[in-house]
Protein backbone atom coordinates (compact mmCIF):
# COMPACT_ATOMS: atom_id res chain seq x y z
CA UNK A 1 0.00 0.00 0.00
CA UNK A 2 3.05 2.26 -0.22
CA UNK A 3 1.84 3.59 -3.53
CA UNK A 4 -0.11 6.80 -2.93
CA UNK A 5 -3.84 6.54 -3.56
CA UNK A 6 -5.55 8.90 -5.96
CA UNK A 7 -7.62 11.70 -4.39
CA UNK A 8 -10.53 10.50 -6.53
CA UNK A 9 -10.32 6.92 -5.26
CA UNK A 10 -12.96 7.07 -2.54
CA UNK A 11 -12.62 3.32 -1.98
CA UNK A 12 -8.86 3.45 -1.36
CA UNK A 13 -7.79 1.17 1.52
CA UNK A 14 -7.01 4.21 3.68
CA UNK A 15 -8.45 7.71 3.70
CA UNK A 16 -6.75 10.26 5.93
CA UNK A 17 -8.84 13.35 6.73
CA UNK A 18 -6.57 15.98 8.28
CA UNK A 19 -7.71 19.15 10.02
CA UNK A 20 -10.08 20.56 12.60
CA UNK A 21 -13.03 21.77 10.51
CA UNK A 22 -15.90 19.53 11.60
CA UNK A 23 -18.03 20.08 8.50
CA UNK A 24 -15.19 19.11 6.16
CA UNK A 25 -14.29 16.08 8.28
CA UNK A 26 -17.89 14.90 8.23
CA UNK A 27 -18.06 15.39 4.47
CA UNK A 28 -14.88 13.38 3.97
CA UNK A 29 -16.45 10.52 5.92
CA UNK A 30 -19.78 10.78 4.12
CA UNK A 31 -18.15 10.70 0.68
CA UNK A 32 -16.45 7.41 1.49
CA UNK A 33 -19.63 5.86 2.90
CA UNK A 34 -21.69 6.92 -0.13
CA UNK A 35 -19.10 5.48 -2.51
CA UNK A 36 -18.89 2.22 -0.55
CA UNK A 37 -22.66 1.78 -0.50
CA UNK A 38 -22.83 2.57 -4.21
CA UNK A 39 -20.45 -0.34 -4.75
CA UNK A 40 -22.23 -2.56 -2.22
CA UNK A 41 -25.56 -1.55 -0.71
CA UNK A 42 -24.91 -3.88 2.26
CA UNK A 43 -21.66 -2.16 3.27
CA UNK A 44 -21.10 -2.38 7.03
CA UNK A 45 -20.15 1.01 8.50
CA UNK A 46 -18.43 1.17 11.87
CA UNK A 47 -18.12 4.78 13.02
CA UNK A 48 -16.09 4.68 16.22
CA UNK A 49 -16.58 7.40 18.78
CA UNK A 50 -13.39 9.04 20.08
CA UNK A 51 -11.59 6.84 22.56
CA UNK A 52 -13.39 3.59 21.67
CA UNK A 53 -10.61 2.08 19.56
CA UNK A 54 -8.67 -0.02 22.04
CA UNK A 55 -5.77 -2.47 21.51
CA UNK A 56 -7.09 -5.43 19.56
CA UNK A 57 -10.29 -3.71 18.42
CA UNK A 58 -9.06 -2.89 14.92
CA UNK A 59 -8.00 -6.50 14.32
CA UNK A 60 -11.51 -7.64 15.26
CA UNK A 61 -13.19 -5.08 13.00
CA UNK A 62 -11.01 -5.89 10.01
CA UNK A 63 -10.91 -9.67 10.34
CA UNK A 64 -12.11 -11.62 7.25
CA UNK A 65 -15.85 -12.18 7.01
CA UNK A 66 -17.54 -15.38 5.87
CA UNK A 67 -19.61 -13.27 3.51
CA UNK A 68 -16.71 -11.14 2.24
CA UNK A 69 -18.75 -8.01 2.91
CA UNK A 70 -17.47 -4.51 2.21
CA UNK A 71 -16.78 -2.52 5.36
CA UNK A 72 -15.92 1.08 6.27
CA UNK A 73 -14.20 1.65 9.61
CA UNK A 74 -14.00 5.25 10.81
CA UNK A 75 -11.59 6.25 13.57
CA UNK A 76 -12.19 9.74 14.95
CA UNK A 77 -9.61 11.88 16.76
CA UNK A 78 -6.85 9.49 15.74
CA UNK A 79 -4.25 11.84 17.19
CA UNK A 80 -5.43 10.81 20.68
CA UNK A 81 -4.96 7.04 20.25
CA UNK A 82 -2.82 5.29 22.82
CA UNK A 83 0.62 3.88 21.99
CA UNK A 84 -0.54 0.24 21.82
CA UNK A 85 -3.49 1.10 19.58
CA UNK A 86 -1.22 3.09 17.29
CA UNK A 87 0.95 -0.04 16.95
CA UNK A 88 -2.16 -1.95 15.88
CA UNK A 89 -3.03 0.69 13.27
CA UNK A 90 0.52 0.75 11.90
CA UNK A 91 0.54 -3.04 11.66
CA UNK A 92 -2.75 -2.94 9.79
CA UNK A 93 -1.41 -0.36 7.36
CA UNK A 94 1.34 -2.79 6.37
CA UNK A 95 -1.26 -5.37 5.29
CA UNK A 96 -4.72 -3.83 4.79
CA UNK A 97 -7.66 -6.14 4.30
CA UNK A 98 -9.51 -6.36 1.02
CA UNK A 99 -12.96 -4.80 0.74
CA UNK A 100 -12.27 -2.65 3.82
CA UNK A 101 -11.78 1.11 3.83
CA UNK A 102 -10.21 2.60 6.93
CA UNK A 103 -10.88 6.30 7.52
CA UNK A 104 -8.64 8.09 10.00
CA UNK A 105 -9.63 11.57 11.20
CA UNK A 106 -6.59 13.41 12.51
CA UNK A 107 -6.34 17.01 13.79
CA UNK A 108 -3.04 17.46 11.97
CA UNK A 109 -1.12 19.01 14.85
CA UNK A 110 2.05 17.72 16.48
CA UNK A 111 0.16 15.32 18.73
CA UNK A 112 -0.04 11.90 17.14
CA UNK A 113 2.34 12.91 14.35
CA UNK A 114 3.90 9.45 14.21
CA UNK A 115 0.57 7.96 13.13
CA UNK A 116 0.03 10.78 10.64
CA UNK A 117 3.44 10.14 9.08
CA UNK A 118 2.84 6.40 8.97
CA UNK A 119 -0.49 6.84 7.20
CA UNK A 120 1.08 9.13 4.60
CA UNK A 121 3.99 6.75 4.09
CA UNK A 122 1.48 3.95 3.54
CA UNK A 123 0.02 5.88 0.59
CA UNK A 124 -3.16 7.16 2.15
CA UNK A 125 -5.66 9.14 0.14
CA UNK A 126 -5.51 12.46 1.99
CA UNK A 127 -8.30 15.01 2.39
CA UNK A 128 -7.47 18.46 3.79
CA UNK A 129 -10.02 19.74 6.33
CA UNK A 130 -8.40 22.91 7.70
CA UNK A 131 -10.11 25.32 10.05
CA UNK A 132 -11.09 28.37 8.01
CA UNK A 133 -10.07 31.41 10.01
CA UNK A 134 -9.51 33.93 7.20
CA UNK A 135 -12.36 35.81 5.48
CA UNK A 136 -10.86 34.97 2.08
CA UNK A 137 -11.02 31.26 2.90
CA UNK A 138 -14.69 31.50 3.82
CA UNK A 139 -15.41 33.41 0.61
CA UNK A 140 -13.68 30.67 -1.38
CA UNK A 141 -15.71 28.07 0.51
CA UNK A 142 -19.01 29.76 -0.34
CA UNK A 143 -18.01 30.11 -4.00
CA UNK A 144 -17.19 26.40 -4.00
CA UNK A 145 -20.55 25.55 -2.47
CA UNK A 146 -22.41 27.37 -5.24
CA UNK A 147 -20.25 25.69 -7.90
CA UNK A 148 -20.89 22.26 -6.39
CA UNK A 149 -24.61 22.98 -6.37
CA UNK A 150 -24.42 23.93 -10.04
CA UNK A 151 -25.25 27.59 -9.65
CA UNK A 152 -23.46 30.89 -10.09
CA UNK A 153 -23.35 33.71 -7.57
CA UNK A 154 -21.86 37.17 -7.92
CA UNK A 155 -18.81 38.13 -5.83
CA UNK A 156 -20.99 40.67 -4.01
CA UNK A 157 -23.49 37.93 -3.15
CA UNK A 158 -20.86 35.66 -1.64
CA UNK A 159 -19.41 38.54 0.38
CA UNK A 160 -22.85 39.54 1.65
CA UNK A 161 -23.61 35.97 2.66
CA UNK A 162 -20.37 35.67 4.62
CA UNK A 163 -20.97 39.06 6.25
CA UNK A 164 -24.49 38.04 7.25
CA UNK A 165 -23.84 34.48 8.43
CA UNK A 166 -20.36 34.70 9.92
CA UNK A 167 -17.71 32.00 10.27
CA UNK A 168 -19.81 28.86 10.84
CA UNK A 169 -19.28 26.70 7.74
CA UNK A 170 -22.34 24.57 8.43
CA UNK A 171 -24.55 27.65 8.46
CA UNK A 172 -22.86 29.02 5.34
CA UNK A 173 -23.34 25.71 3.51
CA UNK A 174 -26.96 25.52 4.62
CA UNK A 175 -27.62 29.10 3.52
CA UNK A 176 -26.09 28.48 0.08
CA UNK A 177 -28.19 25.34 -0.37
CA UNK A 178 -31.34 27.20 0.69
CA UNK A 179 -30.70 30.00 -1.80
CA UNK A 180 -30.14 27.51 -4.62
CA UNK A 181 -33.37 25.72 -3.73
CA UNK A 182 -35.44 28.91 -3.52
CA UNK A 183 -34.01 31.21 -6.20
CA UNK A 184 -33.73 30.78 -9.96
CA UNK A 185 -30.86 32.12 -12.05
CA UNK A 186 -27.72 33.84 -10.82
CA UNK A 187 -27.73 34.60 -7.11
CA UNK A 188 -26.92 38.26 -6.55
CA UNK A 189 -26.40 40.55 -3.59
CA UNK A 190 -30.01 41.75 -3.48
CA UNK A 191 -31.29 38.18 -3.13
CA UNK A 192 -28.85 37.36 -0.32
CA UNK A 193 -29.70 40.61 1.47
CA UNK A 194 -33.42 39.84 1.20
CA UNK A 195 -32.98 36.39 2.70
CA UNK A 196 -30.22 36.86 5.24
CA UNK A 197 -29.75 40.47 6.20
CA UNK A 198 -33.33 41.62 5.91
CA UNK A 199 -34.63 44.94 4.64
CA UNK A 200 -35.05 46.21 8.19
CA UNK A 201 -31.26 45.98 8.57
CA UNK A 202 -30.45 48.17 5.59
CA UNK A 203 -27.31 50.17 6.32
CA UNK A 204 -25.43 53.03 4.75
CA UNK A 205 -22.71 50.63 3.61
CA UNK A 206 -25.25 48.56 1.69
CA UNK A 207 -26.47 51.75 0.00
CA UNK A 208 -22.88 52.69 -0.81
CA UNK A 209 -22.02 49.27 -2.24
CA UNK A 210 -24.86 49.52 -4.73
CA UNK A 211 -24.14 53.15 -5.57
CA UNK A 212 -20.42 52.74 -6.27
CA UNK A 213 -21.17 49.90 -8.70
CA UNK A 214 -23.65 52.05 -10.64
CA UNK A 215 -26.82 50.25 -9.57
CA UNK A 216 -29.02 53.28 -9.05
CA UNK A 217 -32.37 51.57 -8.51
CA UNK A 218 -31.02 49.12 -5.93
CA UNK A 219 -29.12 51.87 -4.12
CA UNK A 220 -32.21 54.07 -3.90
CA UNK A 221 -34.30 51.14 -2.69
CA UNK A 222 -31.83 50.36 0.10
CA UNK A 223 -31.60 54.07 0.95
CA UNK A 224 -35.36 54.32 1.39
CA UNK A 225 -35.42 51.28 3.63
CA UNK A 226 -32.51 52.62 5.66
CA UNK A 227 -34.38 55.89 6.12
CA UNK A 228 -37.61 54.11 7.00
CA UNK A 229 -35.99 52.16 9.84
CA UNK A 230 -34.20 55.20 11.24
CA UNK A 231 -30.61 54.75 10.12
CA UNK A 232 -28.64 57.88 11.10
CA UNK A 233 -28.29 60.16 8.06
CA UNK A 234 -24.66 61.16 8.73
CA UNK A 235 -23.80 57.46 8.81
CA UNK A 236 -25.16 57.06 5.28
CA UNK A 237 -23.13 59.96 3.90
CA UNK A 238 -20.08 58.60 5.72
CA UNK A 239 -20.55 55.22 4.04
CA UNK A 240 -20.95 56.84 0.62
CA UNK A 241 -17.84 58.94 1.14
CA UNK A 242 -15.86 55.91 2.37
CA UNK A 243 -16.87 53.89 -0.68
CA UNK A 244 -15.86 56.60 -3.13
CA UNK A 245 -12.61 57.41 -1.31
CA UNK A 246 -11.62 53.74 -1.30
CA UNK A 247 -12.00 53.69 -5.09
CA UNK A 248 -9.97 56.89 -5.40
CA UNK A 249 -7.18 55.53 -3.19
CA UNK A 250 -6.91 52.26 -5.05
CA UNK A 251 -7.08 53.97 -8.45
CA UNK A 252 -4.06 56.09 -7.53
CA UNK A 253 -2.06 53.15 -6.14
CA UNK A 254 0.84 51.71 -8.21
CA UNK A 255 -0.31 49.10 -10.71
CA UNK A 256 0.74 45.55 -9.93
CA UNK A 257 1.38 46.28 -6.26
CA UNK A 258 1.18 43.36 -3.86
CA UNK A 259 -2.32 43.13 -2.29
CA UNK A 260 -0.87 42.70 1.19
CA UNK A 261 1.30 45.78 0.84
CA UNK A 262 -1.62 47.73 -0.64
CA UNK A 263 -3.76 46.76 2.32
CA UNK A 264 -1.14 48.13 4.70
CA UNK A 265 -0.52 51.30 2.68
CA UNK A 266 -4.20 52.13 2.17
CA UNK A 267 -5.44 51.00 5.58
CA UNK A 268 -7.83 48.39 4.16
CA UNK A 269 -8.14 44.67 4.94
CA UNK A 270 -6.92 42.48 2.03
CA UNK A 271 -10.41 41.21 1.22
CA UNK A 272 -11.57 44.81 0.75
CA UNK A 273 -8.77 45.48 -1.75
CA UNK A 274 -10.23 42.74 -3.96
CA UNK A 275 -13.75 44.04 -3.51
CA UNK A 276 -12.85 47.65 -4.35
CA UNK A 277 -10.97 46.47 -7.44
CA UNK A 278 -14.21 44.95 -8.69
CA UNK A 279 -16.17 48.09 -7.84
CA UNK A 280 -13.85 50.56 -9.59
CA UNK A 281 -14.16 49.22 -13.15
CA UNK A 282 -16.41 52.00 -14.43
CA UNK A 283 -14.76 54.88 -12.59
CA UNK A 284 -12.58 57.76 -13.82
CA UNK A 285 -10.64 60.37 -11.88
CA UNK A 286 -13.21 63.02 -12.78
CA UNK A 287 -15.97 60.68 -11.65
CA UNK A 288 -14.38 60.27 -8.22
CA UNK A 289 -14.12 64.06 -7.85
CA UNK A 290 -17.74 64.62 -8.91
CA UNK A 291 -18.99 61.90 -6.56
CA UNK A 292 -17.08 63.31 -3.59
CA UNK A 293 -18.51 66.78 -4.23
CA UNK A 294 -22.05 65.35 -4.35
CA UNK A 295 -21.51 63.44 -1.10
CA UNK A 296 -20.07 66.54 0.60
CA UNK A 297 -23.16 68.52 -0.37
CA UNK A 298 -25.40 65.77 0.99
CA UNK A 299 -23.40 65.67 4.21
CA UNK A 300 -23.92 69.39 4.70
CA UNK A 301 -27.64 68.96 3.97
CA UNK A 302 -28.18 66.19 6.53
CA UNK A 303 -26.35 68.24 9.17
CA UNK A 304 -28.85 71.07 8.96
CA UNK A 305 -28.14 72.69 5.63
CA UNK A 306 -31.36 71.57 3.93
CA UNK A 307 -35.05 71.33 4.72
CA UNK A 308 -35.21 67.97 2.91
CA UNK A 309 -32.10 65.92 3.80
CA UNK A 310 -33.64 62.70 2.44
CA UNK A 311 -33.91 64.26 -1.02
CA UNK A 312 -30.32 65.49 -0.73
CA UNK A 313 -29.22 61.92 -0.01
CA UNK A 314 -31.15 60.61 -3.01
CA UNK A 315 -29.40 63.17 -5.23
CA UNK A 316 -26.04 62.09 -3.87
CA UNK A 317 -26.79 58.40 -4.48
CA UNK A 318 -27.82 59.14 -8.08
CA UNK A 319 -24.67 61.22 -8.61
CA UNK A 320 -22.40 58.48 -7.23
CA UNK A 321 -24.07 55.79 -9.32
CA UNK A 322 -23.77 57.96 -12.44
CA UNK A 323 -20.08 58.57 -11.73
CA UNK A 324 -19.59 54.79 -11.38
CA UNK A 325 -20.68 54.42 -15.01
CA UNK A 326 -18.49 57.21 -16.40
CA UNK A 327 -16.46 54.82 -18.57
CA UNK A 328 -19.59 53.21 -20.06
General description of the model:
The structure is a single chain. This protein is α/β, with parallel strands linked by helices. Helices cover 57% and strands 9% of the residues. The chain contains 15 helices and five strands. The chain has helices at residues 22-39, 57-61, 83-94, 113-121, 135-148, 155-165, 169-182, 189-197, 204-211, 216-228, 233-251, 259-266, 270-279, 285-305, 309-324, and strands at residues 14-19, 44-48, 71-75, 100-106, 125-129. Helix 2 links the parallel strand 2 and strand 3 (71-75). The longest helix has 21 residues, at 285-305. It is elongated, with a radius of gyration of 27 Å.
Features of this protein?
328 residues; alpha/beta; 15 helices
Short description:
The protein is of the alpha/beta class and 328 residues long. The protein has helices spanning 22-39, 57-61, 83-94, 113-121, 135-148, 155-165, 169-182, 189-197, 204-211, 216-228, 233-251, 259-266, 270-279, 285-305, 309-324, and strands at residues 14-19, 44-48, 71-75, 100-106, 125-129. α2 (57-61) links the parallel β2 and β3.
Radius of gyration: 27 Å
Strand content: 5-15%
Instruction: Spell out the helices and strands N to C.
Output: EHEHEHEHEHHHHHHHHHHH
Structural class: alpha/beta
Strand order of the largest sheet: 2-3-4-1-5
Number of helices: 15
Mean pLDDT comes to 86
- Distance from N terminus to C terminus (CA atoms, Å) equals 60 Å
User: Fraction of residues in helices?
Assistant: 55-70%
Query: What is the overall silhouette?
Result: elongated
Number of DSSP strands?
5
Q: Flag low-confidence runs.
A: none
Major β-sheet, in short? Answer: 5 strands, parallel
